[in-house]
Amino acid sequence: MNQKPIPQDDSSERLDRLSGLAREVLAQAARLGASQAEVSLSEDRGLSVNVRLGEVETVEYTRDRGLGVTVYFGQRKGSASTADLEPDSIRASLEQACAIARHTEADPASGLAEAALMATDCPEYDRWHPRELSAEEAIELGRRCEQAGRDADARIANSEGASIGASASVSVYANSHGFVGRERSTGYSLSCSLIAGEGDGMQRDYWYSSTSAFADLDPVERVGRLAAERTVARLDPRSVATGEYPVLYAAEVARSLVGHLVGAVSGGALYRRASFLLDTVGQRLFPAWFGIAERPHLMRGHRSGAFDAEGVATRDSDLVREGVLQRYVLGSYSARRLGLATTANAGGVHNLVLDANAGGLDALLRGMGRGLLVTELMGQGVNTVTGDYSRGAAGFWIENGQIAYPVDGITIAGNLADMFQAIEAVGSDVDRRSHILTGSILVGRMTVAGES
Questions:
Q1: Contact indicator for 204, 194 with CB cutoff of 8 Å
Q2: Based on the structure, what is the number of domains in the chain?
Q3: Which stretches of 288-446 are DSSP H helices?
Q4: What's the gap between Cα 35 and its chain centre?
Q5: Residues 391, 259: one domain?
Q6: What is the chain's percent helix, strand, coil content, to nearest 5?
Q7: Helices 135-152/220-232 angle, 10° precision
Q8: Pick from 390, 402, 410: which is nearest to 240 by CA?
Q9: Cβ neighbours around 208 below 10 Å, total
Q10: Is residue 409 part of a domain?
Q11: For residue range 267-319, what is the model confidence (pLDDT) as tens digits?
Q12: Contacts of 362 (CB under 8 A, 6+ apart)
């Protein structure tokens, strides 16, 4: 176990090598007759350790690499990929991509993003923090985390274990406009999942920390204790009477609401006409105080980057301002299908920051008075074509602005268009473990289905 998944920092040399290889692939594509081409190359290294009841369950080292290439013959497109970066394998993949392109129908929307949109300045945004983490150290951290949780409360009866992971990735994207973009990032995570109670009364919950710098992880004992506190708080749950109530989404689940919005205003859903938010740019979808801004250049942001998956320069931009949808979420292909311009979102959104208009969770609970606090969502009952929303949920019933008792076995339902309009508050208790930076979100009224 003396092997290290993240050795001395050789990332610059590896990026140089991948950049040179990308240029070679593009030159080969041109020689094979491609009018345009793009290539993505990556190398990933990682360590993952799982500990349960003080014993090591798994130790996994990963060392992956890959190449993906897309060629265009006019407006005919072909793609291929390989995990083998030897010259023969790369050439075979490139030839396969060319063969596919020659046999596909022309698509007027296909092709690279416009050359004038390519990023010219590519800072790193402080996402590279390599640290050697041995299996022995990871195991010890996992044991401490789990033990802290098991020791925190006598009602903790069992454990699903603690996990710790470390990863480092370097990648290059290049295309025949002459663009070569380089990125590198590290990631560290720590989690603990515990079980409280006995028999049919058992409850499970967890907590985790996730950062780009190892030093920013929460202390291991704190993660374990929080997992224990959350688990025992769920013991002896009840249901609630079916009715319409305010529903407060805790910060760690509130970002799912933003995810549904992004899915509905993304190019693929729009040009297929499979979204309840078709033709809504310029319309008020939220209360007048509500805003969401995309901030791709945040230091240590989970999805910070100078360019998108097509090399297009990213920029700060509002998605929602004063409740009004300002734009869609588009790459160049979907933009052309819609007769619009790319929003530098090929590959997805970057960091989204929601405006807060309220205090932390305690303040939101006091303001709500009576209703449901949701801390877990289950199921996939969201229809982005119609906006209909129905999901299993668990959490806590609130009376007089305070937690009264845990609840589970309930369903919360509504329509996303109505739910967006009914948002009354976004809290300042921002969960920073995601690229969607939001606090808890209070929806003024939803159907809660529990006891008849």
A1: yes
A2: 2
A3: 332-338, 361-368, 416-421
A4: 34
A5: yes
A6: 25, 35, 35
A7: 40
A8: 410
A9: 19
A10: yes
A11: 999 999 999 999 999 999 999 999 999 999 999 999 999 999 999 999 999 99
A12: none
Taking the C-alpha atoms of residue 377 and residue 51, their distance in angstroms, rounded to an integer, is 26
User: What confidence score (pLDDT) does residue 345 get?
Assistant: 98
Tell whether 131 is covered by a domain. Answer: yes
pLDDT band at 451 (very low <50, low <70, confident <90, very high): confident
End position of a domain, from candidates 231, 264, 296: 231
CA pair distance 433, 431, nearest whole angstrom: 6
Q: Cβ atoms within 10 A of the Cβ of 36, count?
A: 20
Residues belonging to the chain: 452
Distance CA 237, CA 376 (A): 13
d(CA 443, CA 166) in angstroms, rounded, equals 37
What the block records as the tokens of 251 is 């910060």
Rounded to two decimals, what is the model's pTM?
0.94
CATH number, domain of 142, equals: 3.30.2290.10
The residue among 206, 231, 256 that closes a domain is 231
Among 444, 450, 451, smallest CA distance to 249 is for: 444
| Phi/psi at 180 (5° precision) | -135, 110
H/E/C letters for each residue in 128-149? Answer: CCCCCCCHHHHHHHHHHHHHHH
What is the extent of the structural domain holding 414?
237-452
pLDDT tier, 155 (very low <50, low <70, confident <90, very high otherwise): very high
